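Table S2 (continued). Query chain:
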Amino acid sequence: MIDLSTQPSEASLEQKIERFWEASGRKILAIEKDFDRQQGAPVHTVGGRYVGRAWTEWTSGFEVGASLLQFDATGEQRFLELGRRNTVERMAPHVVHFGVHDHGFTIVSTYGTLLRLMQEGRIPANGWERAFYVMALKCSGAVQAYRWTKLGGGGFIHSFNGPHSLFADTVRSLRSLAVAHRLGGVLKGEKDERISLLDRLIKHLVTTERYTVYHGEDRDGYDVRGRVAHESLFNVTAGTYVCPATQQGYSPYSTWTRGLAWIICGFAEMLEYFETLSAAEIEAFPEHGACIDSFTETARAVCDFYIEHTPTCGVPYWDTGAPGLCELGDYLSQPANPLNDHEPVDSSAAAIAAQGMLRLGRYLGEDTPGSEQYVQAGLKIADTILSEPYINTGSSDHHGLLLHSIYHRPNRWDRVPPGRTVPCGESTMWGDYHARELVLYLQRHLNGETLPYFYNVGNGAMRSA
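Corresponding output:
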């Protein structure tokens, strides 16, 4: 269980944040210089160098978006120009990519960040440039919403595995629908049917909380409150749920911790977004109050599960049911050991979850019982991954920023160093990117600045708290 008895000081965090951005800038420039573009998009490191992986190029937005976050945090103009140029040159094919469920990762991290920076006054307002970003985001949201599997009056955005497959990851890509809706976008169907992106966003959340997240209601023999199934399978002919499944976890009845982290961060961000809806949007939002209460309980459940089933330092092992964990003794009562001989940790799950914890704690407010523990857990996790052995502020030969991140353990895609028995010491593009998102959030919080909200893009009330 995460140890919440001690907390990092602001001075300590500020010092680590400064070191972090110094290292981050070096890594971005090194990847831009050294990565072989014939490999597609950089995905994870092997021996400290980023390599591609021919599955989908879902990590492109993380690489390009990293430059924009670097500019956001430091004000260094060269990173803005790098991010702008690469958005134009590399991201256009992703805007209308119908084959993936990753638009929140690819498009919101690039076009969306640029539009947010313009809306915040961080970059000069320019009518044509803004129109370019708006068009990309509206198209992306509609394309993402088109991947729709209907279940009675509900449904979900299906994964790249097909119409039968609901992934936990996709909650974080609801950002594409939210931004597009905020900008006035819709999905146009046959005979000019106008399909609300907000409606599909809400229905996807309802389906996810019902089938992907467990609530301790004896759905099956492994129904523990807050546990998450990576994948949920459906009979699309009958429109019925079949069973849990997994692609990257150990089993359907254990919890892949990065999938858990996606749910934590995704639900927290959606709750923040719903706070900014207009009266007209709320009126068109079926059972608004009941849904918000239910989504809040779901967010709390997954955060509670993470806190209770993670080692004291806040960094989880890659899956709560990984078979080698039994060899580690009472591993939940001590810090995680990324150099153990039985199961790898996943620092990327920690970076994603930490941001979700901080956002949920702030959303609930100080007067809500239990909210403070989420803030404390987020700070604890952040302090851990901004310290050795996780943060890579030294080696210039290693292009990764956040060490001990795992990609696909069942497929054995992660490098096992010589003399070791499990993967360790490597980085992933999403781990590095979400570490940057987390640190940007922390930096703005400590400086009393506007927090980075993905939906602060215009055509709605801009959030300032």
